[in-house]
Amino acid sequence: MQQAQYQLIIVGGGPAGLTAGLYAARGRLKVLLVEKGATGGQVLVTDWVDNYPGFIEGLSGFDLVDKMTAHADRFGLEKKYATIASLDLAGEIKSVTLENGEVLTASTVILCTGARPRKLDIPGEYEFTGRGVSYCATCDGPFYRNQEIAVVGGGNTAIQDALHLTKFASKVTVIHRRGELRATKILQEKAFCNQKIDFIWNTKVVEVRGDKTGVDSLLLKHHRGDESVIKVTGLFVLIGIAPNNELLHANSLQTDEGGFVVTDEEMTTSIPGVFAAGDIRSKRSRQIINAAGEGAVAELSAEHYLGNKAPDTPLNCSEKD
Length: 321
Ligand code: NAP
Known about the structure:
Elements: E1 6-11, H1 15-26, E2 31-35, H2 61-74, E3 78-81, E4 84-88, E5 94-98, E6 103-111, E7 115-117, E8 133-134, H3 137-140, E9 148-152, H4 156-165, E10 171-175, H5 185-193, E11 197-200, E12 203-211, E13 214-222, E14 227-231, E15 234-237, E16 241-243, E17 274-276, H6 288-306
Parallel strand pairs: 1-2, 1-6, 2-3, 6-17, 8-15, 9-10, 9-15, 10-11
Antiparallel strand pairs: 4-5, 5-6, 7-16, 12-13, 13-14
Helix pairs in contact: 1-2, 1-6, 4-5
The chain binds NADP nicotinamide-adenine-dinucleotide phosphate.
NADP nicotinamide-adenine-dinucleotide phosphate (NAP) is lined by residues 51, 120, 152-158, 160, 177-178, 182, 204, 239-241, 285-287.
C-alpha cells in the first residue's frame, strides 16, 4: 500500500497550529506545518495580550507568536510557507495540494486555519478599505494620530481595540447595535472611564462616505429608524470573526451553521484522521489559551489515531529534552 510522506500535516500556524507542531515535534512524529503567511494568525496583529498565563506583565501579540514559533523550532518542527490550493481529507491517506502543484500526503491532518474579521457589507466599506476603513487597530491605529475615528462592535475586540486606539486618535466613538456591551467587564470599566471614548448605542453604521482622499463621515441608523451623520476620518470594523473554511467545502466535514468545524472534546472531526483546533472550531470562547490547549489535545488525538507509531529515529543522547 502507498505510504504517506508525513504522519501528520498541520494546516495553519497560529497558536493552535504551533502548539500542535510543538507537541508533534517533541513526540518525534514525521510532521509538517503548512502556513500561507507568517506564523501567528490573528495574534500577530493583537496589540497586547494580558491574559496568557505566565506572562505576568503581559506582552505584545507579536512577541507571544515569536516565542511560540521559537519554542516549536527548538524541537525541529518542519514548516513550509505556501498557499494550499486544495485538501482531500476523505481517504486513509490525506493529500494537501499546494498552489504550485506540489502534493503532500499524510495519515492525519490537524486543521488550524483560524478565522478572519467579519465585514459589515455596507456601501462604501470595500471602496474605502485601506483608505479609512480598517479591520486591524494594531496595524492601522498609528495612521489616525489626533483624528476623530469610530469603532463598530461591542465585543472584546472592539473595546480592547478602542482603548488601544485612544493612544493615537483624539476621539474614538464606539457605535454598537445594542444598548449593552458583550465585552468582559474589566474592559467595559476601562472604556467607560476613558475620556477619549464616546458611545453611540442601539445604532448601526449603514454607509461609509468620503471622497478620493478617504473617509469623511458615516451614515448611522438608530433603532427607532432615524438617521444621522457622524464626521470621522476612520472606521474600525471589529464585529467578530468568520471561519477560514474555504478549503473545507470540497470535503464533507461537519460544520455548524456559521461554518465552523464541529469536533468532540478530543478535537476529532467527522472525518477519521482529521482533527481541528483553534478558532476554526465550533465553540463559544475563542482565546489564545484555548487555541493553544486545543492544539495540544488535537496532536495527542492524532498520535492516538496513528497508534503511537513514530518512525524510528536515531537516539540523540546529547539533547536535554
Ligand atoms: P464577538 O465577541 O463575537 O463580538 C462581536 C461584536 O460585534 C458584538 O458586540 C456584536 O453585537 C457585534 N456585531 C456582530 N455583527 C455585527 C454587525 N453586522 N453589525 C454591527 N455589530 C455587529 O467578537 P470579537 O469581539 O471579535 O471576539 C471574538 C472572540 O475573541 C471572542 O470569543 C472574544 O472573547 C475573543 N477575544 C478575546 C480577547 C481577550 O481575551 N483579551 C480579546 C479579543 C477577542 P452583539 O453584541 O449585538 O451581538
